Amino acid sequence: MFAFQESRSVLESTPGAVRALLLHLPERLLNVNEGENTWSPFQVVCHLVHGEIDDWVPRIRLILTNGTATPFRTFDREAGFGKYGGWEVQALLDEFAGLRADNLRTVDDFRIGLEQMQLEGMHPSLGRVTLEQLLACWVTHDLSHICQISRVLARHHGQYAGPWREFISILGGSR
């Protein structure tokens, strides 16, 4: 059984983890990616910030107030690129941390109990989803993007690792 209060700390720590990985990187490394149609670490943060405004809490609120009567708005996964693309990384990381702290306070104020976890909302493409699934997705989404940032940076640096590549699983090594 998913227990949000046990996993809430992941959501709370994500802005700090992302900050630790990215704050002091040069712009060139903030913008490396894995090829066409992949995201750079900077773009991931733009996406995370946009999600704090337009995804998680609005959908939680909608489930709690309207259930399945009002479907979720479609979330544009790349909308943050345009809105935040010109920001300095420190300002973007500060924005993410502030929005996340505000959102966690809002969720805490909802006082979500076990009985609310099975309340349903209507996702535009997935159909009926529960509040529990949405909250678990939020945690999973954060961890996935932390892995993505790490993977992009590891693969960029790994191209220079020479024979040590065979020892590094994220680079395809088998040892």
What is the H level of CATH, i.e. the homologous superfamily? dinb family like domain
Number of strands: 2
Instruction: Specify the overall morphology.
Output: globular
Q: Can you tell me the CATH class?
A: Mainly Alpha
N-to-C CA distance: 35 Å
Assign a percent range to the helix content: 55-70%
CATH topology: Four Helix Bundle (Hemerythrin (Met), subunit A)
Order of helices and strands: HHHHHHHEEH
Low-confidence stretches: none
Major sheet summary line: 2 strands, antiparallel
The CATH architecture = Up-down Bundle
Biggest sheet strand line-up: 1-2
Nearest-integer average pLDDT: 96
- The structural class is mainly alpha
Task: Assess the beta-strand content as a share of residues.
Answer: under 5%
Number of helices: 8
The rounded Rg comes to 18 Å
Protein model, in words:
The protein is mainly alpha-helical. The chain has one domain (4-171): Four Helix Bundle (Hemerythrin (Met), subunit A) (Up-down Bundle). 62% of the residues lie in helices and 5% in strands. It contains 8 helices and 2 strands; from the N terminus they run αααααααββα. The chain has helices spanning 4-22, 27-30, 41-54, 56-66, 79-84, 89-110, 114-117, 131-158; strands at residues 120-123, 127-130. Strands 1-2 form a two-stranded antiparallel ribbon. Strand 1 (120-123) and strand 2 form a beta hairpin. Helix 1 packs parallel to helix 8 (131-158), helix 3 (41-54) packs parallel to helix 4 and helix 4 runs antiparallel to helix 8.
